[in-house]
Amino acid sequence: MTASALSTDLQIRPFDAPCGAEVIGLDLSRPLAEADFARIHRAHLDHHVLVFRDMAIPPAQQVEFSRRFGPLQRHVLSNFALPGHPEVLVISNIEEGGKPIGLGDAGAYWHSDLSYMPRPSLGSMLHAQELPAEGGDTLFANQHRAWDALPAALKSAVEGRRAEHWYLCKYAELQKRNPWRPELTQAQIDAVPPVAQPVVRTHPEIGRQALFVSEHFTTRVLNMPDDESRALLAELFAHSTRDEFVYRHRWQPGDMVFWDNRSLMHLAGGTPDHLRRRLNRTTIEGDEPF
Ligand code: SIN
Question: What range(s) does the TauD/TfdA-like domain occupy (predicted)?
């Protein structure tokens, strides 16, 4: 068996949930065989969220593995990048020397990562570094199922429509709650202008349709009176996160979770203030939604 031969230990075990599978036996300490990579890629498309257990890898290896799926994106809040790793965003509620070491309220509202960019994220990888004894779960909602289950009248109300996504949609509200959130510079604001995205998108690799609006970033449906747009979005937000579409991930030490932002929305379930939580996130650039 050569160093990069097919791993016989690699197992993919689907969860009894609306999305998700566990990956056991992935060894990233040696080059990943093409056949193993192909199995992981296929499982990611089939299950939309993969949980890799016992990943004792440094950030550079997370970056390298993420790059197998496409170019990496850097978050506009570059002050929360891991020192020496501009493509790794630290997600943490920990303060050191009176300063937050990471983005403590990432995922406070349901969203799909970087949907406010012309080319939103294909997927994101989150690697646990320090976990709280309680809380700190991440929830994932399957937007293919949400689309499939949408009542016909709502489907025809949104088909062919576009909505505006804007990074600043909830920024001031979050800043009020969390004063450590930095004032954005003009250059940061200019880097994230509002973009128009389809309300229902087609997954470029599997061809399935998915709802693509979120409480965190969608401001309005275009070419619709404001009150109608608000009412429609409220209905879509409530529908898209119904319990029957949701998998709740309860983190275990060493977990690295890789989800498909073209298929899912996610939400940070919340961590008690007195408990420490720290994870490293990479995001992979996707296509222009259609
Ligand atoms: C995120 O939105 O990427 C963070 C999710 C989490 O912290 O659970």
Answer: 12-283
Model pLDDT for residues 52-102, shown as the tens digit of each residue:
999 999 999 999 999 999 999 999 999 999 999 999 999 999 999 999 999
Range of the domain at 35: 3-285
Q: Please check whether residue 224 lies inside any domain of the structure.
A: yes
Alpha carbons 61 and 72: distance in angstroms, whole number:
13
Q: Determine the distance separating the centroid of ligand 1 and the alpha carbon of 5, expressed in angstroms.
A: 34
Which residue's alpha carbon is nearest to atom 1 within ligand 1?
A: 107
Residue of 131, 138, 252 with the most ligand 1 atoms within 8 Å of its CB, for mutation: 138
Which pLDDT score is estimated for 6? Answer: 57
Catalytic (active site) residue 281:
yes
Question: Cα separations (Å) of 108 from 27, 44, 82, 245?
Answer: 32, 24, 21, 18
Note whether residue 290 is domain-resident: no
* Cα dihedral 29, 81, 118, 68 in deg (nearest 10): -10
Atom of ligand 1 lying closest to residue 136 CA? 8
CATH of the domain at 104: 3.60.130.10
The answer to whether residue 190 is domain-embedded is: yes
Rg (CA), the chain: 19
Angle at CA of residue 221, ends 217 and 222, nearest 5°: 120
Query: Taking the model in full, what pTM does it have?
Result: 0.95
Structurally, the chain folds into a number of domains equal to: 1
